[in-house]
UniProtKB/TrEMBL annotation:
This is Valine--tRNA ligase. Keywords: Aminoacyl-tRNA synthetase, ATP-binding, Coiled coil, Cytoplasm, Ligase, Nucleotide-binding, Protein biosynthesis. The keyword Coiled coil applies. The lineage of its organism: Bacteria, Pseudomonadati, Planctomycetota, Planctomycetia, Pirellulales. ValRS has two distinct active sites: one for aminoacylation and one for editing. The misactivated threonine is translocated from the active site to the editing site. InterPro entries: aa-tRNA-synth_I_CS (IPR001412), aa-tRNA-synth_Ia (IPR002300), Anticodon_Ia_Val (IPR033705), M/V/L/I-tRNA-synth_anticd-bd (IPR013155), Rossmann-like_a/b/a_fold (IPR014729), tRNA-bd_arm (IPR010978), tRNAsynth_Ia_anticodon-bd (IPR009080), Val-tRNA_synth_C_sf (IPR037118). It catalyses: tRNA(Val) + L-valine + ATP = L-valyl-tRNA(Val) + AMP + diphosphate. ATP binds at residue 611. GO terms for cellular component: cytosol. SUPFAM superfamilies: Anticodon-binding domain of a subclass of class I aminoacyl-tRNA synthetases, Nucleotidylyl transferase, tRNA-binding arm, ValRS/IleRS/LeuRS editing domain. It comes from the Bacteria. It comes from Roseiconus nitratireducens. The keyword Cytoplasm applies.
Length: 1029
RNA sequence: GGGCGAUUAGCUCAGUUGGUUAGAGCGCUACGUUGACAUCGUAGAGGUCACAGAUUCGAAUUCUGUAUCGCCCA
């Protein structure tokens, strides 16, 4: 006997093992088949996966399983990403917390060793998560962005770009993370608003002319940066600047609502007052700047110029701004424009360096205090205002980012970016949904050079050896010596002049990993760059490095370009764009044809899921509770075309198993009181032993409950089918001879198969899930299976019913398999035991659902008339049920029913009379044009199909209930009739709307009127009857 | 400041090119358990489609503006 529940806890493991043993997910080069390839967006080994990854990977698996069934050689290539900064940061933080050591204490090799063991641990966990979700990756091809094959690809690419002159070294202002001591990209910086202060300083003017001020006032939120000031700027044309602001404000006022107007007018007045008060002074300063006046920078006693630059805003502060080119991005621009010196005042660890000897060694915070105190002592400190300041924070270390001038390697993006833009504009790469193309093109269009150095130890080390020389001839000699060491494809050397120092740098790039040339290059006095490459550099190569490039493997020839990339929108620029340009550079071909961008999962409060917030849900917790199929089905339903979806998150109380909504408050609490059973449970924040004494609650979402129920429904429908197949004999299905309900099922299967097949190609995951859910539940279970019950009991119909039923279930299993692989596989096995040969022309099916062929949509089975007729039947059933419910007739009672209809409907319904029993607890006693109401009658008219359904209430009558029902019905009818009448009496509607629409309205109005009269008659009769009793 | 998106039932979401009474799941109410399934069945209640204009005979749907929320970029 088959159990009445699908027990995923015992079933899923063995199923996965069988697939694995049979090599179902392994793909090989098969020239006679068309390839379909997906490379996984490699998850970071920094941490475990949450439901965002769950969604991403479920969708990929749906695609790959469907394509595999469709006969493609389907390869889903798995792997993980080393995630340079993130992973090193995690390991370093642990090192500090647990052993109070820094990376410098243990050294490069030991740190990298520790990160490798971290990687091993998390890679294992991630792969385990994917496997439990049922992901049918080709595990034999598992890759890691830092493995040898990927390293070879990185090396080959870097060398190629270097040789093409697309890699150069430059000083740039970078986002410096003083904790991790590395530059981070803009994308790894998050701006937060903090409370801070706005300090006003006075810088003395050197030798002011008569009438000129003795001091210039500036203001800053970061006082310590004044140590690196190299100028003070004033606007070159303050009066014009004021005029421009006034013009803009007036423009806004003209368009503003009354409410905003007064506020804007106040702003305008303020600007005017300011102009009156300050314009003369600012113009004088402008003249002083033109005249070359200098200021004395206090504390460091450096002469700095007063310059005219538009960065100074007359409307803000004193109208003058200090310029610190080495520590502020805007000031850097001013420095470039005005050729100012750039003085770096920071050591890599964020302490003040020897550029300001009096402050050397102080941290930024200490220096800030000291500078303010010293300026006050010197009488140069003005007001200190409170102010909200925007502060850049490192995503990785959560410490403040310092703009910092450093040597970095860059990839010149001009040509590369253009090629990636062209690939999308020309349609070689399709981004779906299309709206994401804009962001991609805009970002690439800026063609900003890509800084690829990271001052880290975890990553691909930059393969450049360098040295600096005073004389160009000397540098050229070294270049010549290095170039002679190997062929031009092995070694490349360049000289780069440094304008600032007047020195000459020699850069030598080596092509091979562990090249024998390394010691020779080092013997020339060159040193290898200590930095590693940005992680995205190696992930940019992922679609081809994983297939063996730079080797010309047969896998590469066969599986590349890949078919589809499935990812989330936050890395369209960081990753997708870079894969496109690297694929084009290295292979001359785009890496994939379709980029499908799926939604981002938010929690119930609309916030992104993350482990650090506590709202991250581990797919394993959901699988433990609801099963892998429920997880997958639930996630697939979320994948609509929108960009965010909300998934409320709950704790599952370990005592009573009730779900407790997660709120912003309780999600960071170490222990929570269960509101249902009043017991306590702990959370991921539990720290003390006291907390840990309470059992820990899993974090899940009830959204998966529906899906779990669906799995159960499917299981039980299959169980019914299986229980009735003991004497099954395969026989061809002859459509012409089948009764209505069978032909209806085949017609619906044809449509559903077509829709689902199209849905896969159009990435309509949610719609597919809905179509299959509705079909399986509302049609296959609620109607087909119910109708099959009496037929299976009838010996003359049993065999044909078994064949169609087995075929229907078979098709449903195949269509559902990509979304719910485990339960469908399990049923498939049972079905195979009883009906190993099945189908329209019975044939032996494959051993696994996973390897079964995808159903074909039989267009010839689609029959509109049949579907319309069947829906008439469904309407009649619905009418009987409504009457029964309104009369509170007990389900075990069978009610006599009379159906007044035309001859055609009579012919249709006559053979289906016996199904009224199981579907509506009714017995049809009269059917056709002559069917009459009963003496004690409950009627329901179905005017759209010209039928009336009557139920004999002789034994059941509840006059009050019936009157209530009829009067409610009458009310609805009257309302609808009024609406229609007013519509049709509107001359505009009648004359302007298309005639068929008007005609339809007229018809439906007359139907409603007929119905109203009949209901009124029923009410009167009933009232009479009630009063006569 | 710019871009993208969202706003529909208590909650989470559908809603095709404008056209009957705007749908589903969960939750809620009532009734119901004799072999597919209570992880179920049947019926029901529940909506000013964020707001304001415009276009149209007709707008959840098209356009403009506003508000709120989220994300990305500066």
């Amino acid at each position: 006997m088959i159990p009445n529940r699908f027990d995923h806890t015992t079933a899923a493991g063995p199923i996965a093992a069988k697939w694995d043993d049979a090599g179902c997910s392994h793909a090989e080069v098969s020239p006679d088949k068309e390839p379909y390839t997906i490379v996984i967006p490699p998850p970071n080994v920094t941490g475990a996966l949450h439901l965002g990854h769950g969604l991403n990977n479920t969708l990929q698996d749906i695609l790959i399983r469907a394509k595999r069934m469709q006969g493609f050689e389907a390869l889903w290539l798995p792997g993980t990403d080393h995630a340079g900064i993130a992973t090193q940061a995690v390991v370093e933080r642990r090192l500090k917390e647990q052993e109070n050591l820094t990376r410098h204490d243990i050294g490069r090799e030991a740190l990298v060793q520790r990160i490798w063991s971290w990687k091993d641990q998390y890679e294992k966990r991630i792969i385990g998560q994917l496997k439990r979700m049922g992901c049918s990756c080709d595990w034999r091809r598992l890759r890691f962005t830092l493995d040898e094959r990927c390293a070879a690809a990185v090396r080959a690419t870097f060398f190629d770009l270097f040789q093409k002159g697309l890699i150069y070294r430059g000083k740039r202002l970078v986002n410096w993370d003083t904790f991790l001591q590395t530059a981070v990209s803009n994308d790894e910086v998050e701006n937060v608003t903090r409370k801070g202060h706005f300090y006003h300083f006075r810088y003395p003017v050197i030798d002011p002319k008569p009438g000129e001020p003795s001091h210039v006032e500036i203001a800053t939120t970061r006082p310590e940066t004044m140590l690196g000031d190299t100028a003070v700027a004033v606007h070159p044309d303050p009066s014009q600047a004021f005029a421009k602001i006034e013009r803009e404000l007036r423009g806004k006022i003209a368009q503003a609502s009354a409410k905003e107007k007064s506020e804007l007018e106040q702003q305008l007045e303020a600007i005017q007052r300011r102009q009156d008060a300050m314009l003369a002074d600012l113009e004088m300063l402008r003249e002083m700047a033109a005249d070359g006046r200098k200021l004395m920078l206090p504390l460091v006693e450096r002469e700095i110029p007063l310059v005219a630059d538009e960065w100074a805003k007359p409307e803000l502060g004193s109208g003058c701004v200090k310029i610190t080119p080495a520590h502020d991005p805007n000031d850097y621009e001013v420095g470039m424009r005005r050729s100012l010196p750039m003085i770096n005042i920071l050591n890599p660890d964020g302490t003040i360096n020897s550029a300001a000897p009096a402050y050397e060694g102080l941290t930024i915070a200490q220096a800030r205090k000291q500078v303010v105190a010293d300026l006050e002592a010197a009488g140069l400190l003005g007001d200190i205002e409170d102010r909200d300041i925007e502060m850049p924070l490192s995503d990785r270390s959560k410490t403040a980012i310092e703009p910092y001038l450093a040597d970095q390697w860059f990839v010149a993006m001009d040509q590369l970016a253009q090629s990636a833009m062209d690939a999308v504009s020309s349609g070689q790469v399709d981004i779906i949904p299309e709206r994401y193309e804009k962001g991609y093109l805009d970002w690439l269009g800026e063609k900003r050079d890509w800084p690829v150095s990271r001052q880290l130890w975890w990553g691909h080390r930059i393969p450049i050896w360098s040295a600096t020389y005073d004389r160009e001839s000397e540098a050229k000699q070294v270049v010549a010596a290095a170039s002679e060491m190997g062929a031009s494809g092995e070694v490349d050397a360049k000289v780069q002049a440094d304008e600032e120092t007047g020195q000459f740098s020699v850069f030598v790039c080596l092509r091979q990993e562990d090249s024998p040339l390394e010691p020779k290059v080092e013997a020339l006095g060159l040193e290898r760059d200590p930095d590693v490459l940005d992680t995205w550099f190696s992930s940019a190569l992922w679609p081809h490095s994983t297939l063996g490039w730079p080797e010309q493997t047969e896998e590469l020839a066969y599986f590349y370009p890949t078919s589809t990339l499935c990812t989330s929108r936050d890395i369209i620029t960081l990753w997708v764009a870079r894969m496109v340009l690297m694929g084009l550079n290295n292979l001359g071909e785009v890496p994939f044809h379709d980029v499908y961008i799926h939604p981002t999962i938010l929690d119930g409060n609309g916030e992104r899921m993350s482990k650090s917030k506590g709202n991250g849900v581990d797919p394993i917790d959901v699988i433990d509770k609801f099963g892998p199929d429920a997880l997958r089905f639930g996630l697939a339903r979320l994948a609509t075309e929108t960009q965010d979806v909300r998934l409320p998150v709950q704790y599952e109380c370990p005592h009573c198993e009730k779900l407790v909504d997660q709120t912003k408050k309780n999600r960071t609490a170490p222990v929570v009181d269960c509101p249902s059973c009043k017991e306590r449970f702990s959370t991921q924040w539990a720290e003390t032993e006291g907390h840990r004494a309470f059992p820990k609650a899993a974090v899940v979402s009830e959204k998966f409950e529906t899906s779990r129920n669906f799995v159960n429904k499917l299981w039980n429908a299959a169980r019914f089918v299986l229980m009735n197949l003991d004497d099954y004999q395969p026989r061809p299905i002859d459509v012409e001879t089948l009764p209505l309900e069978d032909r209806w099922l085949l017609s619906r299967l044809a449509t559903v198969t077509r829709q689902v097949t199209e849905g896969i190609d159009q990435f309509k995951f949610s719609e597919n899930a809905r179509i299959l859910y509705d079909f399986a539940w509302d049609e296959f279970c609620s109607f087909y299976v119910e109708i099959a019950k009496p037929r299976l009991a009838d010996d003359s119909l049993r065999a044909a019913t078994q064949n169609v039923m087995a075929h229907g279930l078979d098709t449903l299993l195949r269509l559902l398999h990509p979304i719910m692989p485990f339960v469908t596989e399990s049923i498939w096995e049972y079905l195979g035991q009883l009906a190993p040969e099945r189908g329209l022309q019975p044939a032996k099916v494959s051993e696994f659902a996973m390897t079964a062929s995808w159903p074909t949509s039989h267009a010839e089975h689609f029959d509109e008339t049949i579907e319309r007729q069947f829906s008439q039947f469904q309407e009649v059933i619905g009418a009987v049920r409504k009457i029964r419910a309104s009369q509170n007739i007990a389900p075990r009672e069978t009610v006599p029913v009379a159906i007044r209809c035309d001859a055609a409907s009579q012919a249709l319904l006559d053979p289906m009379k016996s199904y009224f029993g199981s579907l509506a607890g009714a017995e049809v006693v009269a059917l056709g044009p002559d069917a009459k109401p009963f003496a004690t009658d409950a009627p329901l008219a179905l005017p759209s199909i010209d039928m009336e359904v009557h139920v004999d209430l002789e034994k059941f009558i509840d006059v009050e209930a019936e009157l209530t029902r009829l009067e409610k019905l009458l009310g609805q009818l009257v309302k609808q009739i009024q609406g229609k009448e007013s519509k049709l009496s509107n001359e505009n509607f009648v004359s302007r709307a298309p005639t068929d629409v008007v005609e339809k309205e007229r018809e439906s109005l007359s139907d409603l009127v007929v119905q109203r009269e009949s209901v009124q008659g029923d009410i009167e009769r009933l009232k009479e009857k009630a009063s006569s009793n």
